[in-house]
């Protein structure tokens, strides 16, 4: 009888503990409005990150985590340098810093390695994350390589970064300081952090593309040579698909286009023929 009375007293305590454990704040990725069916389809077709968070990450040193990241993305950064003249050392340093060596929430849940926010032209999926302000909108990418390509397009299609391309390709210090000057980051120590990463881990060696790097791995080729079309006045999805001889639906899916709506100045990735 005493035992039953004791259990009766403990029951409300157990219920309180159980409810409090389930009240933690949950992370949500907010996709653009779609039907339930298309949302589920997108969820299952979403590619996994190239670098997965290690279960024993706490056992890795910072140097090992940097090495893991650089080995995965060095060739992607070099290919972007060949296509867009952005030093690979700068791209890698930004990726390391912005993504927490590939293990930040934005990198693991949104494949966003450069902290690029939505901005008014973004029509794809989005994730909300506290940055300079609470609950800011960031872009969600199909995979990390798409994030690297969008980083290149972000810098090459905005006039405020034009002066950077007048610098020598090996002037990573000029690039680091110029990115801060152009407003890429609000952190006053941003240039110093990039330069420190480049010099500590000798990332500038990736700015020298040697002949043996001509044959890049297959997992970089599928995005490295994709064409990009900037929407001009009079363009339609149909006319663009005909111009590049690609399937209209494939074009829509590749660029996460909703309601078949495109905008003047928007950059569209032209999918490769299967």
Could you provide a short overview of the structure?
This protein has 274 residues and is mostly helical. The protein is 46% helix and 7% strand. The strands form two sheets. Strands 1-2-3 form a three-stranded antiparallel sheet. A two-stranded antiparallel sheet has the order 4-5.
Overall morphology: globular
Query: Unreliable runs, pLDDT <50, ≥5 residues?
Result: 1-49, 51-55, 210-225
Number of domains in the coordinates?
A: 2
Strand proportion:
5-15%
Notes on the structure:
The chain is mainly alpha-helical. Helices cover 46% and strands 7% of the residues. Helix 3 (62-84) packs across helix 6 and helix 4 crosses helix 8 (190-200). It is globular, with a radius of gyration of 23 Å. 26% of the residues are buried.
SSE blueprint:
Elements: H1 2-21, E1 29-30, H2 36-45, H3 62-84, H4 88-99, H5 105-110, E2 126-129, E3 136-139, H6 144-156, H7 172-181, H8 190-200, H9 218-224, E4 227-230, H10 237-244, H11 248-254, E5 267-270
Antiparallel strand pairs: 1-2, 2-3, 4-5
Helix pairs in contact: 3-4, 3-6, 4-8, 7-8
Keywords:
single chain; 274 residues; mainly alpha; Lysozyme; Membrane-bound Lytic Murein Transglycosylase D, Chain A; 2 domains; three-stranded antiparallel sheet; two-stranded antiparallel sheet; 11 helices; globular
């Amino acid at each position: 009888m005493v035992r039953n009375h004791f259990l009766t007293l403990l029951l409300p305590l157990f219920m309180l503990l159980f409810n409090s454990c389930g009240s933690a704040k949950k992370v949500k990725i907010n996709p653009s409005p779609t039907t339930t069916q298309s949302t589920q389809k997108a969820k299952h077709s979403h590619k996994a990150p190239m670098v997965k968070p290690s279960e024993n990450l706490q056992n890795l040193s910072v140097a090992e985590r940097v090495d893991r990241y650089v080995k995965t993305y060095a060739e992607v950064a070099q290919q972007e340098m060949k296509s867009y003249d952005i030093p690979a050392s700068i791209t890698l340093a930004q990726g390391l810093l912005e993504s927490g060596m590939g293990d930040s929430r934005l990198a693991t849940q949104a494949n966003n390695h450069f902290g690029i926010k939505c901005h008014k032209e973004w029509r794809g999926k989005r994730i909300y994350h506290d940055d300079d302000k609470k609950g800011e909108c960031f872009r969600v990418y199909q995979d990390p390589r798409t994030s690297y390509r969008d980083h290149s397009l972000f810098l090459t299609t905005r006039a405020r970064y034009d002066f950077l391309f007048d610098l020598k390709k090996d002037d990573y210090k000029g690039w680091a300081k110029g990115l801060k000057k152009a407003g890429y980051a609000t952190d006053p120590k941003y240039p110093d952090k990039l330069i420190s990463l480049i010099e500590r881990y000798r990332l500038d060696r990736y700015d020298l593309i040697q002949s043996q790097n001509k044959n890049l791995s297959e997992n970089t080729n599928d995005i490295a040579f994709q064409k990009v079309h900037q929407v001009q006045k009079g363009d339609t999805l149909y006319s663009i698909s005909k111009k590049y001889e690609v399937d209209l639906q494939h074009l829509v899916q590749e660029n996460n286009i909703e309601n078949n709506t495109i905008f003047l100045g928007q950059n569209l990735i032209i999918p490769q023929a299967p």
